[in-house]
Specification:
By secondary structure, this protein is mostly helical. The protein is 65% helix and 8% strand. The protein has a domain of 159 residues. The chain contains six helices and four strands. It starts with a helix and ends in a 21-residue tail after the last helix.
Length: 289
């Protein structure tokens, strides 16, 4: 009865571990997708970001790839009832759990530094808009994609000297990427595209919110996966313990069956039992002195 209960319990834990590893595969693919998406977002505005801000996103992608390979140990170990593979699966999951918690802490820590870093980088690079092509491309990208103009507002462009064409508003020349709405009109044979509305908001709050939310999503994703991993670790160690007990019980029962078979064979065939050999010593009689 105890053996049957042990087998049933081990089978339940095995199937639950298989389900958890299947969930790991899905969540690993999801976390890789989230990591690569956020990395792409950071890369689009990388000109204004410090390189350390990319670390949590890269970390999450690496963790997702590791979890995909680690899931193989859990599946194979559960199917083959291998204590070694299941223990390896649990140990690697524990290490990855530590890495995920570190990534979550790093993401939340860096999130608090985003506002000051972006404010400094945007204000330092804005005066070089007309002189450096990389600055021009970076500002045009964020202004057109995030629907913003300048750092705090379009008035920031009034402090940027220029002798190039742009949109003139109240003696301030702003780039064409600040235009929110245009109006086409034909003058003679020429089609003129005239800007009638500028983006009202500055780029600093927009890009800060984008990076802030992305870092928060990374941290939340890492903690969610960590919670699932804790369940997987517990199931793994439980399965490994059940496998050891089941194997020990099987060996004990196999030994008992062998002993019973030997004893039964001996009692039913007494004539075939091995009899200790009797050594006869010949007697030559008493010798006279």
């Amino acid at each position: 009865m105890a053996q049957n209960n042990l087998e049933v319990g081990m089978r339940c834990i095995k199937y639950m571990l298989l389900c958890v590893t299947a969930i790991f595969v899905l969540t690993s693919a999801l976390i890789i997708s989230v990591g690569t998406t956020i990395y792409a977002i950071y890369y689009d505005v990388s000109f204004f970001l410090d390189t350390q801000l990319f670390s949590p996103a890269t970390f999450i992608i690496v963790i997702g790839v590791i979890m995909l390979f680690v899931s193989l140990f859990g599946c194979i170990g559960a199917l083959k009832e291998s204590t070694c593979l299941v223990n390896i699966f649990a140990v690697i999951l524990s290490l990855v759990l530590v890495l995920e918690i570190s990534a979550a802490i790093a993401a939340y820590t860096l999130r608090s530094q985003v506002a000051d870093m972006l404010d400094e980088n945007l204000r330092e690079t804005l005066p070089s808009y007309y002189n450096k092509p990389e600055v021009t491309d970076a500002f045009d990208f964020i202004q057109s994609r995030l629907n913003c103009c300048g750092v705090d507002s379009y008035l920031d462009w009034g402090e940027v000297p220029t002798d190039k064409s742009g949109i003139s508003v109240a003696n301030i020349t702003v780039p064409y990427s600040c235009c929110a709405q245009t109006h086409y009109q034909v003058v003679g044979d020429i089609e003129v595209d005239e800007c009638v509305k500028l983006y009202a908001n500055g780029c600093l709050p927009r890009i800060t919110y984008l990076i802030y939310q992305s870092a928060g999503l990374l941290g939340a994703g890492a903690m969610t996966i960590a919670f699932i991993q804790v369940i997987g670790i517990l199931f793994s160690f439980s399965l490994a313990s059940s496998i050891r007990k089941a194997k020990s019980e099987r060996e004990r029962r196999r030994w008992e069956i062998q002993e019973r078979m030997v004893n039964a064979y001996t009692s039913l065939n007494p004539e075939k039992e091995k009899i200790a050999p009797i050594v006869y010593v010949p007697f030559h009689g008493q010798t006279n002195a």
